[in-house]
Amino acid sequence: MEKQMVIRLIISLSILVMVTEAAIDKTPKAVEKWFKNLPYAKQKTTKFHFYFHEIFAGDNETAPVIAQANITAQSPTFFGMVRMFDNPLTIGPEPNSKQVGRAQGIHGATSLTEIALFFDFNFVFTTGPYNGSSLSVVGRVAESQEYRELQIIGGSEIFRLAQGVATAKTYFSSNTTVIVEYNVIVRHY
């Protein structure tokens, strides 16, 4: 009986520690304390693999055009077109695959000579151990490149002061949908 109580106590304390770690204090004083302890913190590396689903038209559109230049309609590269997006991130390429988060941000066509986009967005995690955390991503995506490299320039909660690389490769593309495979490696505290 006593042994069972000790085991229950250990399990209860373990759960309390996990819940406490998951609930990151974001108050200014807590962030300042975290920052002061940063020189003593150990840097971690985390890897992700998921799929980004962007839909350009129809009832389930996730990336509407929010602005375009006067010359966009005549441009073979869509120069001057800007889209805002809120795209699902899934563990597999199928649209009904388990969703792990959202990619939320903006991209615009920035080249007169090739299809190339400037991206500024966040990977926002909505499930699992990273729920509520995000990674900030910025970079250039040229459709002519098989692999495109975007920079991880920061993050929130678990990924405070994150830095890393997101490698993107088109998995599927049509006139209405693009599915992009992402491999992400990020260092954080």
From TrEMBL:
Q: Name one GO cellular component term.
A: apoplast
* Signal peptide positions (record): 1-22
Does the record's keyword annotation contain Secreted? yes
The protein's matches in Pfam families, at most eight in alphabetical order, are given as: Dirigent
Is Repressor among the key words of this record?
no
Which cell locations does it reside in?
Secreted, Extracellular space, Apoplast
The protein's predominant localisation is: secreted
The processes (GO biological process) annotated in the record are: phenylpropanoid biosynthetic process
List UniProt keywords, sorted A-Z.
Apoplast, Secreted, Signal
Q: State which residue ranges cross the membrane.
A: none
* Role of this protein: Dirigent proteins impart stereoselectivity on the phenoxy radical-coupling reaction, yielding optically active lignans from two molecules of coniferyl alcohol in the biosynthesis of lignans, flavonolignans, and alkaloids and thus plays a central role in plant secondary metabolism.
Quaternary state and partners of this protein?
Homodimer.
Which family, according to UniProt?
Answer: Belongs to the plant dirigent protein family.
Q: What is the name attached to this protein's record? A: Dirigent protein
Organism, as annotated: Nicotiana tabacum
Which lineage do the record's taxonomy fields give for this organism? Eukaryota, Viridiplantae, Streptophyta, Embryophyta, Tracheophyta
Q: Which gene encodes it?
A: LOC107805809
